[in-house]
């Protein structure tokens, strides 16, 4: 693969630290969520993953719909990311993508969502590595 774009971030202090993009623009203080025993007074990697996956999947949906000449400009993608213990040790992520496409029949919306799931870089990166559910809402 030849990368069309590359970005770099640096983190220190792990889940209770800070991370910033080296080119500037975004810097965050991280905090362990209360549900995982932390104070919960900051962002966490799962929140950033949810933001990125939702935006990227929405772009993939726009891409495949444009090729089929279907207007999905009002579509909304909600990404829910979970983290928990993995069988055998360590931790694992899971994702649930909820897609709302107003004015598009459910069967057509499902076909578009399935096609978007094949081209979305986040979906390609997670396929086979973590559970991802797709729901038309």
Automatic annotation (TrEMBL):
One of its GO terms (biological process) is response to oxidative stress. Belongs to the OsmC/Ohr family. It comes from the Bacteria. SUPFAM superfamilies: OsmC-like. This is Organic hydroperoxide resistance protein.
